[in-house]
Design brief:
By secondary structure, the chain is an alpha/beta fold. The protein is about 25% helix and about 25% strand. Strands 1, 2, 3, 6, 7, 8, 9, 10, 12 and 13 form a ten-stranded mixed beta sheet that branches. A hairpin with a 2-residue loop joins strand 6 and strand 7. The protein is globular.
């Protein structure tokens, strides 16, 4: 990871030069994949599957030609891969590619957890994603084309570190979608550190800028879910999150997430008909496909009414009061 960080810092420095220069723009990539990058193509751990790379490159080239992107790096994700690698560590399925620097890095990332509702069960397991959708409040991943947008930092609460109470602030990188992903902002889809603050009590801190009108702040513990699921966002370890946000904040780039609805439906049909995916020119990670049986895409026109009915059925409950920290 340290070596990866060193390579990415070089890419970040190069990206900063591009961002601060009005005379230099990122050039559209040549249509052929360079030889150094071909070495990273494949279905093995730490590799990027050809269809994912080709679509990610096409999206990036398109946006550079339209002058919507100047960043010399682009990103991709393969949400069909498992959460855990053979060595027991979080599996690498998110990719940062800077072709001018001949830099390729694969890192871990979460995928959407989904939900289990009375009318529909679309909850994903911890190891492999079966369900996908762009429905509001579905907590599911939606494959397709995105552009990174602004980065927003918000305070989540305090936690103990080294015997002291320190604030936990998390930065959220907003994604703008296209086509089937165009409601990404409405869904609050983006990227952030795979850590959340589990509030346990209210701590007296009248001098804190985050204190409420009574002089209290939220206090709790941090929960790391780097190898787990998310609410539909991409999630990274702390060091990777910092590196990625530094790379793209104020200098947007493209992100392509596989699979799209067409891929999911085609794979599901092939599995139902007993046809090998290779025969149809289709791709899904083989270990996850054997685990999930067949993937499923939930169109938002079907899933959103179910979610709305479920929300309306929930009994109204008064907000619970947090105890005072002892």
């Amino acid at each position: 990871m340290k070596r990866w960080a060193g390579h990415l810092k070089i890419a970040i420095a190069a990206a900063a030069v591009f961002a601060n220069s009005t005379a230099i723009n990122a050039s559209p990539l040549p249509p052929e994949i360079p030889q150094w990058l071909e070495q990273h193509m494949g279905t093995g751990e730490g590799q990027i599957t050809p269809v994912v790379l080709e679509r990610a490159r096409d999206l990036y080239r398109q946006q550079v030609r339209r002058s919507r992107v100047q960043n010399p790096c682009y990103m991709a994700m393969d949400a069909t891969r498992p959460s855990t690698a053979s060595n027991g560590r979080p599996a690498e399925r998110y990719y940062i590619i800077c072709e001018e620097q001949q830099s390729f890095r694969a890192v871990s990332s979460g995928y959407g957890s989904g939900r289990e509702l009375p009318e529909a069960n679309f909850r994903n397991g911890r190891e492999c994603a079966r369900h996908f959708s762009n429905a509001l409040d579905s907590n599911l991943t939606m494959g397709g084309s995105y552009l990174t947008a602004e980065a927003r930092t918000s305070h989540k609460g305090y936690y103990e570190q080294g015997g002291q109470s320190v604030p936990f602030n998390r930065t959220f990188l907003v994604f703008d979608g296209m086509g089937e992903t165009s409601n990404a902002r409405d869904r609050a889809i983006g990227g952030h550190m795979a850590t959340f603050h589990r509030t346990q009590c209210l701590m007296s801190a009248p001098n804190s800028p985050h204190a409420n009108e009574s002089g209290f702040v939220r206090f709790g513990r941090l929960v790391d879910y780097s190898s787990g699921r998310s609410n539909g966002c991409t999630t990274w370890t702390e060091d990777v999150s910092d590196q990625i946000i530094s790379l793209v904040d104020g200098n947007r780039t493209t992100l392509y997430i596989y699979p799209e609805s067409r891929d999911i439906n085609a794979v599901a049909t092939a599995v139902s008909n007993g046809v090998p995916l290779s025969q149809e020119g289709l791709y899904w990670n083989s270990s996850c496909l054997s685990q999930i049986g067949a993937p499923r895409f939930w169109p938002k026109r079907r899933l959103e009414p179910i979610i709305r009915r479920w929300r309306r059925s929930l009994p109204s409950q008064p907000a619970s009061e947090l105890p005072i920290c002892q």
